[in-house]
Structures are given as C-alpha cells and as structure tokens.
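Write out structure tokens for Malonyl CoA-acyl carrier protein transacylase.
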Amino acid sequence: MSKIAFVFPGQGAQAVGMGKDVYEAVDASRAIIDAADQALGFALSDIIFNGPEEKLKQTANTQPALLAVSIALLEALKDHGLKPDFVAGHSLGEYSALVAAGSLSFEDAVRTVRARGEFMEQAVPSGQGAMAAVLGAEREALAALCASVSAEAGAVELANVNCPGQIVVSGTAAGVQGVVERGKEAGAKRVIPLEVSGPFHSSLMKPAAEKLAEVLASVQVSDAAVPVIANVTAKPVTSAEEIRSLLAEQVYSPVQWEDSVKYLIEQGVDTFVEIGSGTVLAGLIKKIDKSVNIISVNSLEALKAVAL
C-alpha cells in the first residue's frame, strides 16, 4: 500500500512574489496570508509579494513568510483530496508540518516563528557566527573534522544532514573557516560559505532555544492527528508535550533530514508532496532515493497539475 508524506521547506526557499498567484486565485489561501498580517500586526504580505529581497531575507521575516505561503498552498491543495500519512518539514518547515497535522493553529505558528527568527538573529552578534555547505564528505569523517577544528579554532558542528554528499556545518566564524580550509581532510570536494545571519542549528543557538521555550510554554500545542517526523530525532512524534520540547531543542540541534526521508521510505512512503516555495526538498529527496515520486506544489500552475 503506497503512502504519502507532505513535506515543507525551510529558510533558503524564499523568493519575492512567492504565493501571489494562489493568493489572488484561491479564497482559502488569501485568508491564510491575510491572517498572517493580522496576527503579526504588520503587512507581511507586502514583503512576500513586493520585497525588497533584502527585507524578505531577514530571518524574522523569512520564517513567517515561508510558513504563510506553505499553509496558503496547503489550503489550496485541500480541494484535491490528498491526505498525508506522515508530515515533515526542514527546520522552520517543521512548523508548517505541525499546522498541517493540527498540532498548532496557523496564527500561533506564525507568531511563534516570527519570535523564533528574532531570537535566532539576536543569539550571536553579527559576524561572530557562520555556516557553510560541505559537498562530498561522509557524515562520520566530517563530524571528526568538526571536533578537531572545534578544539583548535572554535566551535563548529554538523547543522543540516541534508542528503548523501550535502551537509551544512554551523558555528563560530573561526570554526567554520577552519572547515572551509581543511574540508579536503574529510573528503569534501567543495566547502561553500553560506549567506546567513547566524550559526543556526548549532550549540551557539541555546540562548535562542531558551527564549523560544518560554514562548512555546504559552502556546496551545495539541497532539498531532498525523505523525510528524521530528528534525531532532528523525522519528515520528504525535504527543503535544514531546512536540513542544523538540521544537525548542531543534533550534540548536542538527536537522536530520536524510534520516527523516529514509525513515519515511522505510514506512512505505513512495510519494512526497513538497508544499511551499521552490523545489529545494525535491532535489534533496531525489539524492536520497531516485525511485520515489515527488510532486512540488509551489504555484497555482503546479496545483493544477496535481493528479494522483
């Protein structure tokens, strides 16, 4: 029996104008983005549709913007009668997955990710943290290199284990620079510094996690109606209390995306529906297993093509 997973993208998938076509054509989608403006008390929609790109790229704007567009597209998809057996999201995308699973209300989620973005930006002074994508290295070899560099230069850790041959590291600027310089020791073909506003998914984010935990303590979290594959564990979670604690932990823990996708495939998932801006997750999933079916629902045009 084939199974379906809905998956939701995270930071880096944003683009000015994303979701505008579905906002203009689908009442339920428009209601979601209007609700985001209302919940946040400013015109997030204007930043999403008109930019400028610099403003959309600010973490505290990017996170609610991507969430709003993902859920707007999810609302439009509901007419197609697709129901997921599992949901998952990459980093920030986990919040979209939790809304899809009925664990968080959209309004609570959008306010929470706005705060999450602010806390992540504030956790480490500008210029002191960094991230880099490491291409071609094995996970164990890269983890060993990070430990060696951390002891000599400054903390650097695995942040996103995305797919075979693509791992993102995060930490102090000096630590990440050490991996850039010594990447070949771990078998890396290339190490590409990323344009980010902080060392996300590293232990340097613990101050952000503590503040986020306080916000989450006052948010209504319900048991998930559909199993959510947690970034921290790459395993399903449905209990409200576990979801709450994992969301705080997620900020400073590596995103186990490759393991999450492998787990879903082991459970019989053969169709992944990527809901949100871009096709980042489709690319990662194909590198994990070429045989699965992937549908990217990122526009009105893509929605029209959904037929299973």
